[in-house]
């Protein structure tokens, strides 16, 4: 089983630690078995987390046996233990995947493993990360960055997005979707989405898009024109486009394409339906349209994607939440 080690050091931000531990623990394989063996590994048996202390069962020696290491952020001014830096470097030499949550990027950067690579952290701290580590190419405008072996995420909420993204890389969209449902969060936002997009809660004036998005998810197979979507929302097209930008970070039609592709991924992984039938089921006008959008988003064909996942593991290729510039 894939081992995930979440690091706990004095000054750890509790939300940064609990989020990946919970999300990976929620992931289940189709047979119902846990997808990950999650362990919290401390620099000491008892770790100071500010408002409370955490007693952990494993030490840093567990990092050498982990397949994935998660580095939560530490509170401002907390020194980074040299033992931890050495343990991370040793694990990296063995090929372990290492991801940081929010301020955990400072720990990962301290190892030198991010030198020459893109990385991100909470937008408040991006300038400080760039100042302390000038060889790191800090990107303040994204939710997470995938540099292969090393991944970094922005503020704490982006940890959900990064964890679900890694689950999808490891086990496919169906497993990631179920983990998202168990965590009561949407399937991850795109890594290239801006940190500054405001995701507003439902408003009493009916301006939240949540009911509309739920309706769209239930009607993906239909040929939905922008005019019909705006009418359903009770808005002008101009207002609809503005609300989508504010609340989802994209346009209505781009959102539809991504939702259809995610549905297609699940069907490719979990059914034997033909590409032609899947294209019709998720709302693409032709199999060629599905293939074109699929290749653009996932960098492979639907048939090759199905073959890779039926082989038991997702390819280490770009996903719908891929790294790179914003869509």
Description of the molecule:
The model is unreliable at 190-206 and 312-327 (pLDDT under 50). The protein has 327 residues and is of the alpha/beta class. The protein has helices at 14-26, 82-93, 104-110, 126-132, 156-171, 173-183, 210-217, 226-233, 237-248, 252-270, 275-282, 287-298, 302-310; strands at residues 2-8, 36-42, 46-48, 53-55, 68-71, 97-100, 118-119, 137-138, 144-146, 150-153. The strands form three sheets. It has a six-stranded mixed sheet with strand order 2-1-5-6-10-9, with helices on both faces. It has two domains: 2-183, Class I glutamine amidotransferase (GATase) domain (Rossmann fold, 3-Layer(aba) Sandwich), CATH 3.40.50; 199-248 and 250-327, Arc Repressor Mutant, subunit A (Orthogonal Bundle), CATH 1.10.10.60. Helices cover 43% and strands 12% of the residues. The protein is globular. β9 and β10 (150-153) form a beta hairpin. It has 13 helices and ten strands.
